[in-house]
C-alpha cells in the first residue's frame, strides 16, 4: 500500500477482486484447498482493506468494493451452483466482512460495498465451455457498477451487495422471517 501512496500521494479506492476458482466436495476437500481459498478471498480482501484504512480514515474519504459470489448461497436461492466446499465459504466470509467494514467506515467517510459479478473472464472460461450462456457477460458491466460505487454519487451507499450480470442489476436484501413454514413447524413443536 505504501508504494501506491508514495507513487500517487494517497489511496482513495480499493477494489478487492482477487479470486481463485478451486473447490472440492466434502469428500475431497483438504486443509490446503480451504487454506488457499481463505488466503486469497478473505485474508486478501481484509488485509488490503486494512492497509488502505488508515490512509482513507486520515483523509475522511474512501471507497472499498469487494467481490463476492452467489456461490455463498444454496443453489435454490439464486439458480447458480454452490461452488463446493471452500470457494463458497470463503466468499460468504467476504460477504460478512463487507457488512462489518461498512459499519466501521461510516464515521470516517469510508464506504464498503460488494459486487457479485456474472461476467465471462479467463478465470471462468472453462465453465462456459460446459454451459454456454446467451447473456452479454461483458466484464464492462461489472466495471461500470464498481466505478459508480467508487464515486461521490454513491457516498450514501454502504454495506450493500449488488449482483451484476448480463447488463442487469439486482440488490441482495437479507431479512429474518417469522412467518415461514419451518418457523411455524418449530413453533408447533417447541412453544
Plain-language structure description:
The structure is a single chain. This protein has one domain: NAD(P)-binding Rossmann-like Domain (Rossmann fold). It contains seven helices and five strands; from the N terminus they run αβαβααβααββα. The protein has 191 residues and is of the alpha/beta class. Strands 1-2-3-4-5 form a five-stranded mixed beta sheet, sandwiched between helices.
Q: How is this fold's topology laid out?
A:
Layout: H1 2-8, E1 13-16, H2 31-59, E2 62-67, H3 75-78, H4 87-105, E3 110-118, H5 125-130, H6 139-149, E4 161-165, E5 168-171, H7 181-189
Parallel strand pairs: 1-2, 2-3, 3-4
Antiparallel strand pairs: 4-5
Could you describe the largest sheet, including whether it forms a barrel? 5 strands, mixed
> How many β strands by DSSP?
5
Order of helices and strands: HEHEHHEHHEEH
Secondary-structure arrangement, i.e. CATH architecture: 3-Layer(aba) Sandwich
Number of domains: 1
Mean pLDDT level: 88
CATH superfamily: NAD(P)-binding Rossmann-like Domain
Strand adjacency order, main sheet = 1-2-3-4-5
Describe the structure in brief.
With 191 residues, this protein is an alpha/beta fold. The chain has helices at 2-8, 31-59, 75-78, 87-105, 125-130, 139-149, 181-189, and strands at 13-16, 62-67, 110-118, 161-165, 168-171. The protein has one domain: 3-Layer(aba) Sandwich (Rossmann fold).
Index terms:
191 residues, alpha/beta, single chain, 7 helices, five-stranded mixed beta sheet, Rossmann fold
Amino acid at each position: 500500500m505504501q508504494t501506491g501512496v508514495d507513487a500517487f500521494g494517497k489511496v482513495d479506492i480499493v477494489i478487492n477482486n482477487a479470486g481463485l476458482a478451486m473447490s472440492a466436495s466434502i469428500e475431497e476437500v483438504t486443509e490446503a484447498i480451504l487454506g488457499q481459498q481463505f488466503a486469497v478471498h478473505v485474508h486478501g480482501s481484509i488485509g488490503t482493506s486494512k492497509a488502505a484504512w488508515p490512509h482513507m480514515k486520515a483523509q475522511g474519504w474512501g471507497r472499498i468494493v469487494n467481490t463476492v459470489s452467489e456461490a455463498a448461497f444454496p443453489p435454490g436461492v439464486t439458480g447458480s451452483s454452490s461452488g463446493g466446499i471452500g470457494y463458497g465459504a470463503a466468499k460468504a466470509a467476504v460477504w460478512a466482512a463487507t457488512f462489518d467494514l461498512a459499519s466501521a467506515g461510516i464515521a470516517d467517510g469510508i464506504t464498503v460495498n460488494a459486487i457479485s459479478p456474472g461476467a465471462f473472464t479467463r478465470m471462468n472460461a472453462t465453465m462456459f465451455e460446459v454451459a454456454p450462456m446467451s447473456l452479454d457477460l461483458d466484464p464492462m458491466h461489472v466495471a461500470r457498477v464498481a466505478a459508480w460505487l467508487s464515486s461521490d454519487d454513491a457516498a450514501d451507499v454502504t454495506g450493500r451487495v449488488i449482483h451484476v450480470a448480463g447488463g442487469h442489476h439486482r440488490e441482495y436484501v437479507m431479512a429474518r422471517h417469522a412467518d415461514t413454514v419451518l418457523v411455524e413447524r418449530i413453533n408447533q413443536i417447541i412453544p
